[in-house]
Amino acid sequence: MRLGGGGLWSLGAVLIAGLVLLPIVAVCWIAAFPTENIWPHLMSTTLPRYLTNTAILALGVGALASAMGAGSAWLITMYRFPGAGALEWLLLLPLAIPAYVGAYALVDFLDYSGPLQVLLRETMGWHSARDYWFPAVRSRGAAVVVLAASLYPYIYLLTRAAFREQSGGSYEVARALGAGPLALFWRVGLPLARPAIAAGAAIAMMETVADFGVVDYFGVQTLTTGIFTTWLEAGNAGGAAQIACVILAVVFALFALEKSGRRRARYHNSARQARPVTRVTLKGGAGALATCATFIPFGLGFVLPVAVISHHAWLHPEAWFGPGLGRALGHTLATGGIAAVLTVTAALFMVYGVRLTGRKLPRLLLPLTTLGYAAPGAVLAVGILIPLAALDHRVADLVQAVTGTDPGLLLTGSATGIVLAYLVRFFALAQGAADSAFGRVSPSLPMAARSLGRSAGGALREVYLPLMKGSVGSALLLVFVDCVKELPATMLLRPFNYETLATRVHEKASLENLGEAAPPALLVMAVGLLAVALLARANLRGRG
Question: Distance from CA of residue 519 to its chain's centroid?
Answer without folding.
Answer: 22
